[in-house]
Amino acid sequence: MTTSHADPVVGVVVPTYNMEQKLRQTLQSIINQTFSNWTCCIVNDGSTDGSGAIACHFARLDSRFYVLNQINQGISAARNNGMRALPGSVEYVAFLDADDIWKNDTLEVLFGALHGTEFIGAHGLGETIDCDNPALDKATFTEYGRSRLGIENGRFVPWPSDRATNFAAVAIHSKVFPPGLILVRRDALIRVGNWDPKFPILQDWDMLIRLTRLGDFRFVDQVVIEYVRSSTSMSASRKNNLIDVRNIYFKTFNSAENSPEQKAILRDGWRAVQLMKMREKSRTIQDSLKRANLRTACTTAAALPLNVIRYVRGYPTRRWL
């Protein structure tokens, strides 16, 4: 058995619901950390498989783990309860999904990038493990995360590697996921409040937006996590993703906590998106006319005025109209 530190400085929250096939490797990746001053709350969110038994096994194996059992309440409630259960000595918090895997030096890298700085958090990059297609190029997801964009002077611009990830880089479109590649100050999490259970899939994006209202994240150009993708994963649902995107936009744009500068970023970002969509539809119309596909050309042309209206308005409504 490994003896826990008397005053752990990093707290890890691992929510799990029926993840017995993947939980073991996730928890082992925490044990493998070169940074040892951590504690981990495994939140068993009403699992009906062997997840609870695996969690208890690791708690017996290493006393830095402990298990919080609850009836099934969803991932946001599990993260909220897990963070509240962390000891008072914890200054930095990471949320690791029960099917993702940390690199051995993840906590060492992120803690080193954050501790002693003015940033509210630090984040690295991920690479994918695709359960349905093992041959998937891992670098594709890494390059996606590295190619950050932000709103500046009314348009999307590339974010250089030495530039912090701030509100302008996540409010309209974020490439910072999964949540396990982030380490954040506990006091910042307390200030922004709970993970929002209204968002079943993109609750990490909502949390990131709220955190960047307070301050910036230091970007670490290094892979720190293996992100599991599969056709059955929650984030694979395009329809549910779109619903969350719409609701998060509506919540973000209407938040009373936006500063004047953040309101301007949101307006400029919304209009930049509408311009992009208008250009895409214009190209579709031109290509359709070249192919004599009048039906597609007419359908696309009929939808184009909606983007003009949205651009002029400068913000989304509940139904984006």
How would you concisely characterize the structure shown here?
This protein folds into 2 domains: 10-252, Spore Coat Polysaccharide Biosynthesis Protein SpsA, Chain A (Alpha-Beta Complex); 260-313. The protein is built from 11 helices and 10 strands. The chain has helices at 23-31, 51-61, 75-84, 106-114, 138-146, 167-170, 186-192, 203-212, 238-253, 260-290, 294-313; strands at residues 10-16, 38-45, 65-70, 92-95, 101-102, 121-130, 149-152, 155-158, 182-185, 217-229.
Count of DSSP helices? 11
Please give the CATH class of the largest domain: Alpha Beta
State the CATH superfamily name of the largest domain.
Answer: Spore Coat Polysaccharide Biosynthesis Protein SpsA, Chain A
Number of domains: 2
Largest sheet: 8 strands, mixed
Percent of residues in beta strands: 15-25%
- The end-to-end span amounts to 59 Å
The pLDDT mean sits at 93
User: Which residue ranges are poorly predicted, with pLDDT under 50 across at least 5 consecutive positions?
Assistant: none
Please estimate the helix content.
40-55%
H/E element order: EHEHEHEEHEHEEHEHHEHHH
CATH topology (level 3) name of the largest domain: Spore Coat Polysaccharide Biosynthesis Protein SpsA, Chain A
Query: So what's the overall shape?
Result: globular
Number of DSSP-assigned strands: 10
